[in-house]
Design brief:
Blueprint lengths: L4 H7 L10 E5 H5 L6 E4 L5 E4 L7 H4 E5 H7 L13 E4 L8 E4 L4 H5 L3 E2 L6 E2 L5 E3 L4 H4 L3 H5 L2 E2 L3 E4 L3 E10 L8 E9 L1 H9 L12 E5 L13 E5 L8 E4 L5 H8 L3 H12 L4
């Protein structure tokens, strides 16, 4: 009876990465058949397959091999093909069940992780300085029939010709950065303010318009509840997204917009939003 690696991939779990994906392992695993006792799936997508040997001299024993090669050595790792980003699995011996847990990263490690951009699809080596929502929460929660009767673009949303929303940015100064951190959010505004904004959409001096009231309709899970938070909308020059100013002085988001944050706070956003780590 013949047996091949292709049969393994068909019958067992399969890594979503191609079989020629480069992964990290050691000379002990590949050349001395050391049992793989640690598998990690890093936040940046890297896979590591290690034995229980000391890693103090890691640079001397480290190997870059294909995922296919590691599976040939130990096909039991296929059971970890769906291991989430930022998690690791450990065991003492090959017959043991894997114990899965989150990897605990330092702040500096998070900052070096990078991310895949949902807009351009490219990998960026730095952590994001902006997050946003594609639609107002109120629109997201609509039933299918009402959603079909509503309108959503990248800039505005109209629900049933009764509720009106615009997209804007909450800008927060970051102590060591030239550019601010931004939350791209949706704000519900009154019909009159909405219609005025549409009438002046291409007006050169529209930025001179006085700020007007709105209600935040985007949950920012790094803060206490932000849905319904009172804000001011400041129109910008043509082609620039409106700036949103938090009005409620007792909310942490108001404090941070007023006083700024540091990169550790930005890293905390990435841990919570991008990597699901807290």
């Amino acid at each position: 009876m013949s047996f091949s690696l292709k049969n393994i991939f068909k019958k067992a779990k399969k890594f979503k990465e191609p079989e020629n994906t480069v992964v990290y392992t050691t000379t002990y695993v590949m050349h001395e058949k050391s049992t793989i006792t640690l598998v990690s799936h890093e936040l940046n997508g890297d896979w590591q397959f290690m034995g229980n040997e000391s890693l103090e001299n890691f640079q001397e024993i480290a190997l870059l091999v294909s995922l296919n090669q590691v599976v040939k050595i130990d096909n039991s790792i296929l059971s970890l093909a769906d291991l989430p980003f930022g998690h690791q699995a450990t065991r003492i011996k090959k017959s043991d069940k894997w114990k899965i847990e989150k990897i605990h990263y330092t702040e500096s490690e998070i900052q070096e992780m990078g991310y895949y951009c949902s807009q351009c699809g490219e990998f960026h080596s730095e952590i994001p300085m902006s997050y946003g929502a594609e639609s107002p929460t109120s629109y997201f929660n609509l039933d299918e029939k009402t959603r079909e009767q509503s309108e959503l673009t990248q800039d505005i949303c109209i629900i049933n010709q009764e509720r009106f929303f615009i997209k804007g940015q909450i800008k927060i100064k970051v102590d060591t950065q030239k550019d601010p951190f931004t939350w791209n959010v949706w704000v519900e505004i009154g019909k009159e303010d909405f219609e005025t904004g549409q009438e002046n959409w291409t007006e050169e001096n529209r930025f001179l318009r006085m700020p007007y009231n709105g209600i935040l309709d985007t949950p920012l899970n790094c803060y206490p509840n932000t849905l319904g938070l009172k804000v001011k909308v400041q129109t910008q020059k043509v082609g620039i997204i409106p700036e949103i100013i938090v009005s409620e002085t007792n909310h942490p988001l108001f404090f941070e917009q007023e006083n700024g944050i540091d990169m550790n706070r930005v890293t905390g956003f990435a841990k919570r939003i991008l990597y699901s780590h807290e």
